[in-house]
Structures are given as C-alpha cells and as structure tokens.
Design goal:
Layout: H1 3-36, H2 42-45, H3 50-60, E1 63-67, H4 70-73, E2 79-80, E3 93-96, E4 101-109, E5 112-119, E6 128-129, E7 133-139, E8 144-146, E9 150-151, E10 157-158, H5 166-177, H6 187-193
Parallel strand pairs: 2-6
Antiparallel strand pairs: 1-3, 3-4, 4-5, 5-7, 7-8, 9-10
Helix pairs in contact: 5-6
C-alpha cells in the first residue's frame, strides 16, 4: 500500500471510531431516559417536542457548548462526497464532551422521534457528509438507525417511514449519501450495513 492510501484508511477508521462513540452515547442516553421514567417507549417517556429533545441533550450528555443555531457549534458549510452542498438546516445545537456536535430535531412521524445531525469532530474538517457528518434517527422503541427519508428538489422531507431495512439503507446510500442531492441519509446506514466500516 502507498502512504496516501494508508493515511486514507487510517482517517476512515478514525471517523468510524468517533461515530461509534457518539452512537453509543445516544443509545445509552435514550435507554436511561426511558428507564428513568419507567416507560415502554420514548414518546410515552416524554420525548414528544423539540423542547423535550433539547432537554434530553442537556440532561443526559455533558454539554460543553450550547448554540442557538447550527453555525455556533457546527462548521459554516458542508459538502458531500460528490462535491454537492449538503442540506443541514438550522436549529439549536450542542457540542458534547467528546468534541462531537449534535443537533437534535424532533420529528415524530411514524416511529421516528428525533433525528440527530452529528459532526463527529465538531468544526474540524473535512466537513463532508459521510466522512465526519452524519444523520441518525432515534426511533420510538429506542433503536438508533439511519434516517429513512428522502429530500425533494425543494429541500423538503418526503416519504418518512420507520427504521430502514438493510436494502433500504443501501438505497438511501445511493440516492442520498453519494448523490448530488442535498440529502445526507444513507451514509450512516452504509456503515451499519458494512459492520462499522467505512468502505466507500
């Protein structure tokens, strides 16, 4: 192997390690949230509004910075692997102790409760969806998976449904993650499908 390819492989592993850490933190926090309220699912536990989503972060994570909008905690702009602009919206966001930036977005549709925009290394580069920027969705049953939705040409969320199957993750990867659309779904799902490896 050449030195550049060794460096790329090392960087991919670093991103996945950071992503896995954030994944575990969110998963554990969701379980604790539900257990603390002796509830059978997250909505019953009270995760039912944007305010509750923000409180979830502030209570169950060690927050080192809270930002009123995305630009305070995230980089000013993001690209996709294809070079297209990534559509990331705006909301209150947080930097947690690990250095990751999180933006919770309450979107209770079907089984979805909160989608998380996650930059595993905060404002540090490369600021590319699928490398250090991902979207995850916390479902009502506590499962954390890819966000199973598409973005139309106007930037609107369409076809939102429950946690994706392996095949749906691959479809999202092709239609969102590596495409020229602004959507960033599918990157996280591809890593899940490939047993926590960044093969793309």
């Amino acid at each position: 192997m050449t030195v550049p390819s060794l460096m790329q492989n090392h960087q991919r592993k670093t991103y996945v390690t950071q992503l896995h850490k954030v994944y575990n933190e969110i998963q554990q926090a969701a379980m604790q949230y539900q257990n603390d309220r002796n509830a059978v699912n997250l909505v019953e536990a009270g995760l039912n509004s944007q305010e509750a989503a923000n409180n979830f972060i502030e209570t169950y994570f060690k927050v080192v910075n809270k930002c009123d909008n995305l630009s305070g905690c995230f980089a000013d702009s993001y690209k996709k692997i294809s070079g297209a602009d990534a559509g990331i919206g705006d909301n209150s966001s947080y930097v947690i102790a690990s250095g990751a930036a999180l933006r919770p977005n309450y979107n209770h549709v079907d089984d979805s409760v909160i989608s998380f925009l996650v930059d595993v290394n905060g404002k540090q580069g490369p600021n590319i969806a699928g490398r250090d920027l991902f979207i995850m969705c916390l479902y009502n049953n506590g499962v954390l998976d890819d966000a199973n939705y598409n973005i139309d040409d106007d930037g609107n969320t369409v076809n939102f449904s429950g946690a994706p199957s392996e095949e749906e993750r691959n479809d999202l990867f092709n239609s969102q993650c590596i495409s020229n659309s602004s959507g960033i779904s599918g990157c996280f799902g591809k890593i899940l499908n490939d047993n926590w490896e960044m093969t793309y």
